[in-house]
């Protein structure tokens, strides 16, 4: 192998390593976003359950009055 080929290979390897690091950083960001969305989803589900319980209670009151 010539020195030029080795140099090209080294450059490609370096570019690949840099790309891997960027992808790892992006993955960590996406994991963090996913965790935040999961927490938000849980909060919204709790809110929905709370509202559903309140509506069911009110409907029950209306049914008992009729």
From TrEMBL:
Q: Where are the transmembrane segments?
A: none
Extract the coiled-coil ranges from the record.
6-54
Question: Record's InterPro entries?
Answer: Cell_div_ZapB
| Main location (coarse class) | cytoplasm
Write down any Gene Ontology CC term: cytoplasm
Q: Where in the cell?
A: Cytoplasm
Superkingdom of this protein's organism = Bacteria
Q: Name one GO biological process term.
A: FtsZ-dependent cytokinesis
* Pfam families registered for this protein in UniProt: ZapB
Keyword annotations for this protein, in alphabetical order, are:
Cell cycle, Cell division, Coiled coil, Cytoplasm, Septation
Task: Work out whether the entry's keyword set contains Cell division.
Answer: yes
Function, as annotated:
Non-essential, abundant cell division factor that is required for proper Z-ring formation. It is recruited early to the divisome by direct interaction with FtsZ, stimulating Z-ring assembly and thereby promoting cell division earlier in the cell cycle. Its recruitment to the Z-ring requires functional FtsA or ZipA.
Report the family membership: Belongs to the ZapB family.
What does the subunit comment say? Homodimer. The ends of the coiled-coil dimer bind to each other, forming polymers. Interacts with FtsZ.
Q: What is this protein called?
A: Cell division protein ZapB
In its UniProt entry, the species of origin is given as: Shewanella gaetbuli
């Amino acid at each position: 192998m010539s020195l030029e080929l080795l140099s090209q290979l080294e450059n490609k390897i370096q570019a690949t390593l840099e790309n891997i690091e960027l992808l790892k950083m992006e993955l960590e960001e996406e994991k963090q976003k996913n965790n935040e969305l999961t927490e938000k989803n849980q909060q919204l589900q709790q809110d929905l359950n709370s509202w559903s319980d309140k509506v069911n209670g009110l409907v029950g009151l209306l049914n008992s009055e009729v």
